[in-house]
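for the writeup, i need someone to sanity check this before i put it in the appendix. the sequnce is what the collaborator sent (i think, or maybe the updated version? ugh). structure was predicted straight from it, no edits. if anything looks off just tell me and ill rerun, i have time this weekend
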Amino acid sequence: MDFCINPPPPDLDDALRAAIDQKTKPLGSLGRLERLAFQIGRVRQSLRPRLEKPHIVVCAGDHGAAKAGISAYPQEVTWQMVENFLAGGAAINVFARANGLELLIVDCGVAHDFGPRPGLVDAKVGAGGTASYLEGPAMSEAQCRQALENGAALVAQLAAAGCNVVGFGEMGIGNTASASLITHCLAGAPLSECVGRGTGLDDAGLARKRALLQQALEAWPERSAEPLAVLARYGGFEIATMAGGMLEAAQRKMLVLVDGFISGAAALVAARLAPAFLDFAVFSHLSQEPGHRRQLAALGAEPLLDLDLRLGEGTGVALAWPLVKCAAAMLAEMASFAEAGVSQAV
């Protein structure tokens, strides 16, 4: 797939700033919401943007390294949670229903045979999940490319159906470990500052996780900071699929909503492959995972919410969506001083 993304043209920048400043409010009084409205207007190239058919793509995949005990939960929880998504009982289902968001549940490489299922997209790259990066690459170059292309194809289908705003979430036991390694390699942060408790490890479990991830780094002595090499070595099929989807969405001038730490790892890959991706990305919240701060700092990104979340699934996207929707509505619908006949400050 093509990793070339053009930033939004600056043609409307002055008009957008003027439109926001002329709304019936003191200058700058809507704070971060004004910056978000400006970004939405730039992405959609409109002074009256409309965000249509919003979707959250929830990508699921298993990690070979999880079998070594890097998570508080067994690997089987990945497929069991996919079943929960399909049944409508997970947090992301509840939040999406509450906020009018459509969900797309994607099997990117879960170690389970679901068979044809209503509501489940089969984009499985490896039937048993990735290989263990404790011993070698998590995926081959061909598998990595396939996952990226799968994500791009999913977003292309959404765009063809009229969607112009898409969020990304995930499920995969062990994927905070994978995100930690990607963050260390691509954000230049010490590994110790990238590794957190994930699904709730105790102190002994956290120490074991750190030791295993250090082992993973030592097993790749020739490691590079080339994004696709890092993604293939340490990533998951769900992370690669999200990265491909994010890049495709930006190429199609869609607004991209990024969830937390694992989705942030996909965004970090996307931004390293195509820096202009960041013009299209809204980072929904600050995760409790310590590595997420390092991701955001490396990307120069400012999250919308800070609610001590660390669930994943796209839950941060669903919670941030009302703010995104309100920012777009403010730009599109709020009256100017001239339109409302209200006197401006002197």
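Residues 268 and 295 are 7 Å apart (CA to CA). The chain has a mean pLDDT of 96.
thx in advance!!
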